[in-house]
Every structure is written in structure tokens, then in C-alpha cells.
Amino acid sequence: MEAAPPAPETAPGTSARGAELSDRRLLVIGGDDLCDAVASHIHAWGRPVRRMHGPSNRDVQVALADDADAVAVVSRDDIRALRYALLVEHTRPGIPLLVTIFDRTVADEVVRSVPNCTVIAMTDALVPALLGPCVAEDIVSLSRGTEGDAEGYVTVRNTASGPRVEHVPRAAVRCRRRVRDAIRAQLRPLEGTTRALLAGLLGLAAVFALDSALGAVVLGEPVVTAAWHAANTLTTVDSPAAAASAPAWYHALSTVTLLCVLAFSALFTAGLVDRMTSLRLTGMVGTRAVPRSGHVVVVGLGQVGLRLCQELQRLGLGVVAVERDRHAACLPLARSAGIPVVSGRGGDRFLLQRLGVPNAQAIVAVSSDPLENVAVAVAARAVAPDRRIVIRAGGEDDVVAESRSLFRIATVCDVNQIGGSFIAATALGQGPLTTFTADGRLYALLDDGTVRDTDRWRRAPAPDPAAR
User: Which terminus in the chain has less CB density within 10 A, N or C?
Assistant: First the structure.
């Protein structure tokens, strides 16, 4: 990352709005651990909340008849979230409503149908906390600026005096890929069929150049005629008449080139047919060529992994995704976005070596399985001990907690802690840009540029939501 010019800093402080949360009485609807985390954060901050696990239509209607000031629908299933949002709006038109939806098409439809609805995606909460460590070890959060600062980024660095906010222009954050790295990505494809296609193409080009040069120098032909005869040789049409009276060494060399043409043609044809008849997730040239150094390896191409890859590309970093499910829902989106995807298991150290992990800038494991993410971190640590590793964890996962206590495997991004607090703070009207952890503490970066330690929001707890 290029050195950032001096930029105004905002020290952690208090703002009139950030000092106290609203006293909205919230109804939280959902049926997974993320929804539990949202309700737990609201309860821990001492605000009234009621939690409903996958309620029926009648249950929602009865609950909305009580004193609920706002509703939060938290679900990883977009269609289920849409159904509850429409039900809430039908029962209590105009009530403040927050819904978690990833798909942009569904989100736009919800906003159009329910104007009083705020739509957020889990990627909005998690990606800044994952993106920061990929760029620099001391950055705990990196996000694009608000609408008034569309060309800038907001970074939060972890310093000895606490988190420090910096507003920097896009050019100061954007990374520049070296020309050497770009050329290596184009000339060292990962897949065997792609290498065969490239080898055949380069071999045919070399034979064509050699035959053209020999025709011009040895046979005395004009350059254009020599190139024409060389093309005839490549296509096995004919050889020039003058070649019959050429020296013996010319005949020997011509024999070798003809045999090479046969081999290179076979390689080129095999690679071309494979690329034309199968779904390819990597390319030979362009953004879908697998980078070989200075890149970020993202294991797990779900909603979070896809969005993280897109943000890394916007920063100018090379990126390659690893996904074991060949039918994953996000694969077509990754293909259209120009993201190279390799099929395989991220915990396979041989695959990590092929992906150039020792030369990578960072490795990020963001699959939905915490055990798989730990396996990726351990394998990556064995292959490249000095590389930055970031993993996604879920809640109070014992394996992740025990692994961290034994040795430093990676920077851990807790989905429920970060995502749950982000949704809770948004539902309570704080408008956080992001939430993140630093030195074991949870912070919120608000849209007015201040950083809040979420422990300052705690007060005498409201009744336990589980008791209702």
C-alpha cells in the first residue's frame, strides 16, 4: 500500500448521539445464532428487546399489537427475511423496520415496497473488519467513505493509545500491482489445460518465427513470401520449392520444426477444446488470470467471500478465491465480476503452494464452517509462516477459542460479535459505518467519525429477552 499523505485524524471520543442509545422497544425476529447475538447485544446495552424464533404469522401480529417501537428481521435467508418484512409492514404500516438481505435485487424490491425499511447485508458489517488486516497488520477496519466522501476511505488503525480514525483519499489506499507480478500471472497459468493451451500457442508462434527467418535468410525469399511459406508449413499445406535445394542442415532443422508443429498443434487444440466445452473459472489473461505474488487468497466464496474479493479488486490487489463446491450460488457472480476461482479444499497445503501462498500478501478463510477455517489457517501457517492470516469465526466456537489460546493462528473476525453488534447499533439508530474488535474490545465507528467503545453503552439491563 502506498504511503498515505498526512490526513486529519479523529481520536476516539464522544458525540451527542453516540453517547446514548435510543430507548426504542425492539422486536427481533429470526431463527439463528446471529439473531440471538443481535438480541443479546441490545439486552446487554440495557435496552428493551423481545426475541422471536421463527414465529408464525399470527405470532408476529400479536407481538406487533404490543408496545414495539421498531422491528429487526435478521435472517441469512433473503426470501424468509422478505416474507417477514412484508408481514410486519402489512400489520403495522410505517413502523421502523430493519431487514438483513444480501441479494441486491431483493433488497431493492423491499425498499421500493416498504419505504420505512432499512436494508443491510451481513457483508456490510463483516467486510471492513476482514479487509483491514489484508492491507496492513495494524488496520482493524477499512471501509469506503460515506456518500459525501465517495472517493475516499475510512481506516481505523490500532495504536498504543487506542483505535485511531483516518480519512484518506482513494489514491492513498489503492495498491499498485507491479508489472512483473502481472506478467507472471499471465505467463504462469495454474491449470494444466491452460498451460497446455499457452504452451501450444507459444510453440506455434516460435516455429512460425523460426521458419520465416530461415526462409528469408537461407532461401533468399522476401520476408512476406517467407512468412507465407512458414504459415503453409504450420498448416501442413506444402513446403516451398526452393527448400528442395537447401543445405542438409536446413532439412534437419525443418524436420524438427515440423515435428514440433505436430506436438504444439495437439497441445493447442486440446487446451482450446477444453476451454470451449467446460465452465472455466479462471482465465489466461486479464483480471481472471490467477495472480502469483502480492495477492490475497480468499478461501470460501459465499456472500462474504464474494464481497471481500470485489473490495480487494477495487483496492488494486490481485485476488484468487478457493471454493470446494462446484455448484456454489456465488460462482456465476464471481465469473461476471472477473474474479478467478479455483476449485478445491482450502486446507490442502499443496493447493495453497500452487496458489503462491508463500508470495501472497494475506490469506483469508471465510467459509461458513469454523473448523474448515481453522484448518486453512493451520495449513497456511505451515506453508507460509510469515504471511498474514485472517479467519472468520462464528460466535463462541470452542475450537477457535482453544486454537487461539494455544498459538496465534490468525486474526479472528467473529461473525456474531461484529455482525450482531453492527445490526443492533443500526436498529437502535446509531448508524454505524462498521464495528470491529481491537485488543479484545468491541468498538463501533459511527458515521460522524467518532469511535465508541460499546461497553460505554452498557447500563442496567432490561428484562432478559429469553424470559419473554
Answer: C
**What whole-number percentage of the chain has pLDDT above 90?**
10
Q: What is the pTM of this model?
A: 0.73
Each residue of 147-162: pLDDT tens digit? Answer: 444 568 888 999 888 8
Can you tell me the distance from the alpha carbon of 41 to that of 435, in angstroms, rounded to the nearest whole number?
A: 13
- Which residues are registered as beta bridge partners of 435? 444
For CA atoms 421, 423, 427, 432, the dihedral sign is: positive
Answer CATH for 282-393 from 3.40.920.10, 3.30.70.1230, 3.40.50.720, 3.30.470.20: 3.40.50.720
Residue 411: exposed, middle, or buried by beta-carbon count in 10 A (0-12, 13-18, 19+)?
Answer: buried
Kindly state which CATH superfamily the domain 9-122+158-164+419-467 is placed in: NAD(P)-binding Rossmann-like Domain (3.40.50.720)
Strand positions, DSSP E, 121-271? 139-144, 152-159, 162-169
Contact 87, 60 (CB under 8 A): yes
Identity of residue 287: T
pLDDT in tens, 417-440: 898 999 999 888 888 889 998 888
CB 26, CB 72: distance < 8 Å? yes
